[in-house]
Design brief:
The protein has a two-stranded antiparallel sheet. It is built from seven helices and two strands. By secondary structure, the protein is mainly alpha-helical.
């Protein structure tokens, strides 16, 4: 199905159009149906404003980093955001790349769920799974680097420990209502995905491509 994109001027004016139409409907047509329709339009305007405000809050937390990464954090017409996977950040190892794509998917689900204000219990389960998958991936990645005696093994393992400790700390604070969910997903999006997978992991990309054995390469 082809997606319909609004012109920028109409997109920016949309909440004002909703609100204006709601006020005019209530004032001009004095009956129950008009009141209902007018209130519905005002509610739509409020929802659009609220979603845009949440998006801007998350965007402000983005660290000021150079725009050289091949990863994008995209704003979509539905006011939510999505991490965009690109093949240019593949490491060449099929298991690691599959795990990376899985983390992208889970991160996108978590981002959209937090911004949509899903139930706290649902968010906790979703974020717990995300952390578990991150921990599993880090362990797999370290095993791959250790098997080939890669010189970045110790440095990379240290980065993993710091990121995982920070993720668990933020998750614990979120569970205790000490921080909003947007703080946690901002860390996941920018520190774990954009900076770590998009930059740190690229330092060994190509080095981890599985080598064919003599028997596999023989005709």
């Amino acid at each position: 199905m082809k997606k319909l994109f609004l012109p920028a001027w109409l997109y920016n004016a949309l909440p004002y159009l909703y609100a204006g139409a709601g006020v005019v409907t209530i004032a001009a047509i004095r009956n129950g149906m008009a009141l209902f329709a007018g209130l519905a339009l005002l509610a739509a305007a409020f929802n659009v404003w609220q979603l845009r405000f949440r998006y801007r809050q998350l965007a402000r937390r983005r660290p000021r980093t150079p725009k050289s990464t091949d990863l994008d954090l995209l704003a979509h017409p539905d006011h939510l955001i999505q991490l965009n996977w690109k093949s240019s950040i593949e490491t060449g190892h099929p298991v690691l790349d599959a795990q990376h794509r899985r983390l992208f998917g889970l991160a996108n689900e978590a981002i959209n769920a937090v911004l949509a204000e899903r139930e706290k219990a649902d968010l906790v389960l979703m974020l717990e799974e995300l952390i578990e998958q991150v921990e599993t991936h880090f362990r797999t990645e370290e095993n791959v680097l250790a098997e080939i005696a890669h010189p970045l093994f110790e440095t990379h393992r240290s980065l993993h420990r710091g990121l995982l400790a920070k993720a668990k700390e933020l998750f614990s604070q979120f569970e205790r209502d000490q921080i909003p969910g947007t703080d946690f997903i901002a860390f996941i999006a920018y520190e774990l995905i954009l900076n770590h997978i998009g930059k740190d992991d690229q330092r060994f990309a190509g080095d981890v491509i599985p080598r064919k054995s003599v028997w596999e390469s023989s005709p």
